[in-house]
Amino acid sequence: MKETVIYNATVIPVNGDMDVFPGGSVHIKGNTIQEVSPVRLEREGAEYVDAQGMVVMPGFVNAHTHLPMVLLRGYADDLSLREWLNDHIFPAEARWMTPENVAVASRFALVEMIKSGTTCFNDMYFFEEVIAREAKRAGVRCVVGESVIDFPTPSFRTADEGIARTESILREWKGDSLVTPSVCAHSPYTCSRDTLLKAKQLAETYAATLQIHLSETVAEVDDLLARAGKRPAEWLYSLGLLDSRTVCAHGVWLDAKEVGLIGLCGSSVAHCPKSNLKLASGVADVATYLGRGLNVALGTDGAASNNALDMVEEMRFAALLAKVRTHDPAALNARQALRMATLNGAWALGLGDVTGSLEPGKRADLLLVHLDASNTLPVYDPYSAIVYAMNSKNIRSVMIDGRWVMRDRQLLTIDKDEATASLLRLSSQVRSAPR
What we know:
Blueprint: E1 3-11, E2 21-29, E3 32-37, E4 47-50, E5 54-58, E6 60-65, H1 81-96, H2 99-115, E7 118-125, H3 128-138, E8 141-148, H4 159-173, E9 179-181, E10 183-185, H5 193-205, E11 210-214, H6 218-228, H7 232-239, E12 246-250, H8 256-265, E13 268-271, H9 273-278, H10 286-291, E14 295-298, H11 311-326, H12 334-341, H13 343-348, E15 366-370, H14 382-389, E16 395-400, E17 403-407, E18 410-411, H15 416-432
Parallel strand pairs: 1-4, 1-5, 6-7, 7-8, 8-9, 8-10, 10-11, 11-12, 12-13, 13-14
Antiparallel strand pairs: 1-2, 2-3, 5-15, 15-16, 16-17, 17-18
């Protein structure tokens, strides 16, 4: 079994003590981390990787995204969420999101994600079996689930068909080393009570993560109050949808009672700061959520509303926005932001024992980050340099499940040129078609 020792690095394991090991080492055997040490390790027969000037840290966990929407990056900008979705995105998806086009877009999205350090992502969209296959082929860890909704989509005509597709994915990918199937109910405003309960029952049957958009806009909250007499998180709680396997995407407009209910149930919030800003949805009060004990992770949302799949940017925006929202520069510090982008995401997705930190027994999902660079020097605190100074181009190499998927900025599992050419051919058709 192949062994690798990465040495001469500043190791940031994102462990319980949030340690920093200057001149440290990570020993990997097969796909598993064996040891994380503050000193150089010697292991006979191992491949040695000299990481002088590098930080070795966990890969990013993107806790909420929609990969194929990279095809619609820039397609409809500067609009409110409802106008953006109803008048532009839903019609474009109905026309363009075929299985073949989902594969093309997902492959290109994976290029962007690997190059910006994402080693695990959580996707809800259509034709998720296609996305799972593309991620598996690229060697990227993922959680996938068909986005069940009460109106026709590119991949199903009724909510029951969506539930059936979800169950098929749950069965097909059960026990896979990289792909974890999940259940997705799109949102309380697009799913009836019956659909929400069916999704929850399916998640219970397969002990799967349940994903849902929640409290993204004020309009969503007001509409549900008028229809059901409850705010979104209260509504989900009343239906039994909130538990430790539930991931609530966005969570911008949670009140104190809802925060308490989410915390009581052990559910997680996937904070998507850039998408929420661009759609003018608002700024989630993540400092309060964290202070109340909620597990808050980070997600990019889709590239059509972000317009990037870059977790480095997401991490920095999360830290800065928390300070502005509270008028407190210490509201969300660099260590908390990095933890949200890594380990908190893993716990949200039910993978906290698998990934999200560099600890013995976990899978080797890690990054080599060049901090000996003009945009980061001098480095007084590596956490601060990572959150406030680095960009995705500082990420030099990426390992997932013990396998290098990028070395020295060169992709090893995806043909970038082919992926780019395929996306450009497809986008030229979208551009020239009448809307």
